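Bit of a strange request maybe. I'm writing a small parser for structure token strings and I need a real example to test against, not something I typed by hand. Could someone generate the tokens for this chain?
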Amino acid sequence: MDIARQQRPRRPAAPRSRPARDVASRGVLSRRARAVVGPLGVLGVLLSAAVGSGLLAGCSADPPPSRTEAAAGIGAWPTFLPSPTPAAQARGSVADPALSYAGSPVLVSLATGTVTVDVEGPSYPSTTKVGADRVPCTFDVVLSGATAPVPLRSARFDVLDHTGVVHVLQARAGAAVPDRVEPGQTLTLHLVATVPSGEGLLRYAPDGSGTAAAWDYVAETD
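Reply from user aminoacidic:
Good idea to test on real output. This should exercise your parser:
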């Protein structure tokens, strides 16, 4: 046998690690929401950065166990794995929008400063029928931590439903949207719209046109 041509045993390949995605500043659209954002150029940026998995931006979670804690339970943390770190807060702007989900706040950058915006809901009236095709929804939008006065009169909050229709959110009956949010103030807006049952996006446009952040939601009465 020609020893020079004999195949040498290969060394085991080192584990290949994929670069971690920055889920703090990017989320992904839900399956239905991905299908409807295409026609809207403002969310094209979100789509290109967000397709891939079922996670969304800014997931809040308890800090992962330390290596010492892991060693006490399942053994020492493997040295070839990166140390786990908790997800950071999502950041968005009109130039670089963020995609999140209800309960996960976004730090929105404006021309004059920043403000933290979170969404809770939707909630429904107690009289809403089970399995209703259209659902009267209330979304609570919480603004806090402003570093400068944030105008709200010119801002736009709307919903993009899974059929591609846009629903402008209005203040709840008997309420009005204030002119602005001041530094140190926490303001909750109770915004309403009747939307089709299913998934969609609640969007915040600080200047009334360009979306800076969006939150995935599901309106279901099953």
